[in-house]
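Why this split exists: single-chain examples teach little about how molecules sit against one another. For that reason, every record in the complexes split bundles all components of an assembly together and asks for one structure covering all of them. Below is a record exactly as it appears in the raw files.
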Amino acid sequence: MATEMALVKPISKFSTSSPIFSNSRYGKFTTVRMSSTSQSTAKAAAKGGKKAAKTAIKETLLTPRFYTTDFDEMEALFNTEINKNLNQSEFEALLQEFKTDYNQTHFVRNKEFKEAADKIDGPLRQIFVEFLERSCTAEFSGFLLYKELGRRLKKTNPVVAEIFSLMSRDEARHAGFLNKGLSDFNLALDLGFLTKARKYTFFKPKFIFYATYLSEKIGYWRYITIYRHLKENPEYQCYPIFKYFENWCQDENRHGDFFSALLKAQPQFLNDWKAKLWSRFFCLSVYVTMYLNDCQRTAFYEGIGLNTKEFDMHVIIETNRTTARIFPAVLDVENPEFKRRLDKMVEINEQLLAVGETSDIPLVKNLKRIPLIAALASELLAMYLMPPIESGSVDFAEFEPQLVY
Ligand SMILES: [Fe+2]
Ligand SMILES: [Fe+2]
């Protein structure tokens, strides 16, 4: 989730020409067609109108992703005839909770938003826009995946399918609310375009379960941590969206709990050595991605009064503790070696980004990148091989006897 190039296009109703982030700030309105860093958006925009709109999209490993999966395998996994571990009464209870729709009236804006946005100036303004764009893309990615799962599982398992549809309702709300936030900065993400133009990453169902469980829980811990921090330090409350995070994060928590129930219904994804290796792998990739991303955007976190690394470590530790309730193995993130290696990766990543900024020809850049990528890989491997923490759901043992037949 990091550097991406932008496809930007002014909305002709508001503006007939670029530039986009002009300093006569509030006269222009722009559709951002691809999630982007504000800097690259600004650079692309500076090149002017149509030329900017054709700028290539550069996806990296750290870019927020859109996912797709093997829907036939998903159908088989949720077929109650095939899978006797499916605890339908637990899913019925979860469905009732989703139907209650606690946040139906929560996402209502007021005039504070635009007023606050107008006061955000300078570099913080750009980084704020980027935060909104990236968050909106991530929420929208959840919406697309859950919506499709809701559609595809309708016949096989209507209860699970309806939960997915209701989760897609939540994510659409979140993405829409963030996109409205962008309108305070005279921008809008073109979500229809994003749906068609974005590359989709294919993950087998079991990987979708690990990855989405973690992203929901990490999302919960990020939102609640920011909310609590700003409640205690209201002088940093520079934009009202954070006031909504308390109820908002409960949606993410519920989504995570649903994936936890799904995983429990698929003991084969939790109960062997392969499951342990994959669990550690997904924990590592999610934590490292967040850490490297956030350390490239310290201005945002400092802008709201947080220390980026402390914030991230708190989120990682809490997410890891939550995850330990269900994953069969997690990383020893509280071991100081883990943070030491994360910080080393941040340094290497900075050097890697610096290579990209030089005026060297591509071949030279690539040659310079090789040892840095090797160094990143060796840090990752060392973290992966750190002695893990054996974990798992307390009530998981209840599923064991059912595996006999
Ligand atoms: Fe969400
Ligand atoms: Fe969610």
